[in-house]
Amino acid sequence: MEENATQHEDQDEYVLLDLDGVYGLIDIPANANYVLTGLDTLNPVLIIDDRFKLVGEYEETIGTCIAFSEQDTPVVHEETGPSETNRFSGTKLIDSSQPSTKQVKPVCQLHKILKFKLSPDSEIRTAEEAN
């Protein structure tokens, strides 16, 4: 019984960081530095670019919540057939005239969503104040 408890503790837990609550209020640069602290508390803190302080709150997911990754995949044609004129039999050719397709793969199952909002005690300039 003790072994099962130890194995359960070693499992990874994935959390989705939801920034919809601050979308449009602040301008977050694409490669902004950030510090995420207090993941084991009720209200983790996310500081972005030493300018924006956000406070999070956990929300349990309902049902199955799965995160996916997306990759561009080129269109590939495989030449087949016993034809003597088919010099590329059994080879794969990338068709550059076709746009890439998207390949989607599941990454993990999520159990919690961490929703962030602006910290009430933060001296943050919002996008509206900056203009």
TrEMBL record:
Polar residues bias (residue ranges): 82-100
Region (Disordered): 73-100
Record domain Transcription factor TFIIIC triple barrel: where: 9-117
Domain of life: Eukaryota
Pfam family, one: TFIIIC_sub6
Cellular component GO terms, alphabetical: transcription factor TFIIIC complex
Gene Ontology annotations of biological process type: transcription by RNA polymerase III
Coiled-coil ranges (or none): none
PANTHER family: GENERAL TRANSCRIPTION FACTOR 3C POLYPEPTIDE 6, TRANSCRIPTION INITIATION FACTOR IIIC TFIIIC , POLYPEPTIDE 6-RELATED
This protein's name: Transcription factor TFIIIC triple barrel domain-containing protein
Source organism (scientific name): Trifolium subterraneum (Subterranean clover)
Lineage: Eukaryota, Viridiplantae, Streptophyta, Embryophyta, Tracheophyta
